[in-house]
Amino acid sequence: MSAPRRLPIVATAFEEAADGERLGLLRRRLAARAAAEDLLDVAYRTIDSPVGELLLAATPTGLVRVAFASEGRDRVLAELAARVSPRLLEAPFQLEAITRQLEEYFARRRRAFDVPLDLRLAHGFRREVLRLLPGIRYGSTASYTEVASAVGSPRAVRAVGSACATNPVPIVLPCHRVVRSDGSLGGYGGGISVKRRLLALEAGSTAEP
Amino acid sequence: MSNPPFQSVVEQHGHVLLRTCRALVGRDDAEDLWSETFLAALAAYPRLRPDSNIRAWLLTIARHKAIDRSRTSGRAALAMDPLPEQTSTLGLPGEQDDELRSALDALSARQRGAVVYHYLADLPYAQVAQLIGSTEAAARRAAADGIASLRSALGEEVG
Question: What residue ranges of chain B have pLDDT lower than 70?
């Protein structure tokens, strides 16, 4: 329409100084009630980590998405709204277990994750590949070729690469442990520096750029 | 095109909805109305057509919830009025702005609706008209008349 007009006193008279705080509280209460009444299809939160801010999202089934800051918060949320459900709210209390486990992982006090997963964002062959990833031991790597053989399609090396690149729950399903046969790192959804950093963390190295 | 994540609906419209709820049911009940409105909206959200005016939709829900409230919990305050539909959906005066609230209460239902939905909820007149059940031109006129009445009741600072 037109340029934003001056809000008349009629509007400001119904605003209060603490509205910012009240709205934060109301939003948290709304998320809690939505979860209690089974109206919350996707809960998300963001956490800080040594590899930058991570967005974590869960459905009532389990963890559905881990996203790096480089993927863009708004883009990731829009994708979740479109592909899972638009009933999506920030609800950190729904993600406490995975938050704690990630903290332990980054503190090198945890080697494997134990939370329910919702792999609805991965299909068919890609999902089969993802299911194999936890079998690659913490601190070690496997080549794309080895993973292809393990999944029973030794020639599907590129498809294994795609499965890793589109892994909806990186770190938790450790696609960072899949590297090229020649020992070079290959790609990573969160950027190659994140992959290098995760492998160094698992190797116990503290020499970190 | 699908609807945006509900989180962004709350972030975008929560503030306006809170001040509108205060005008609809008074400040004591406003936060409950805010919560009920967003919870009901969340339940219905997957069925909302993607090209809808989301704020107008939220206010339609809030208006219905406010009317429900005035019929039940607000009964004591409104019991003297024989025509519930025409009683004020504005609530009891809060600690502040008593003058403004009573001036708003003194408007006709149509003027009050037009002022609240246009000036507080920041809706265009086409949507205001749908909410108060009138034409766009009539909504525009009702809002102008309402503001004029408030001005003469309270002084020039209004509007």
Answer: 1, 73-98, 156-159
Alpha helices of chain A — where are they, by DSSP H?
A: 9-12, 19-36, 73-83, 96-106, 124-132, 144-150, 157-165, 192-203
**Claim to verify: residue A24 and residue A52 sit in the same structural domain:** yes
Query: Could you tell me if B121 and B71 are in contact, meaning their C-beta atoms sit under 8 angstroms apart?
Result: no
Indicate the residue type of A30: L
User: Are A69 and A129 found together in one domain?
Assistant: no
Q: Considering the entire predicted model, what is its pTM?
A: 0.86
Query: What is the predicted pLDDT for the residue at B90?
Result: 46
Q: Which residues of A touch B39 (CB under 8 A)?
A: 30, 33-34, 37, 39
Contact B157 A9 (CB under 8 A): yes
A162 and A190, same domain (yes or no): yes
Instruction: Say yes or no: A185 and A97 in one domain.
Output: no
Q: A41, A75, A106 — which closes off a domain?
A: A106
Describe chain A by its helix, strand, coil percentages, rounded to 5: 45, 10, 45
Instruction: Name the region of A163 (left: φ>0; alpha: ψ -120 to 50; beta: rest).
Output: alpha
Q: Which of A106, A135, A158 is the last residue of a domain?
A: A106
Nearest-by-Cβ selection for A88 from B5, B23, B147: B5
Residues A92 and A134 in one domain: no
Residue A170 identity (one-letter amino acid): P
* Chain A residue numbers touching B12 (CB-CB < 8 A): none
Closest Cβ–Cβ partner in B5, B20, B97 for A81? B5
The predicted pLDDT at position A16 comes to: 86
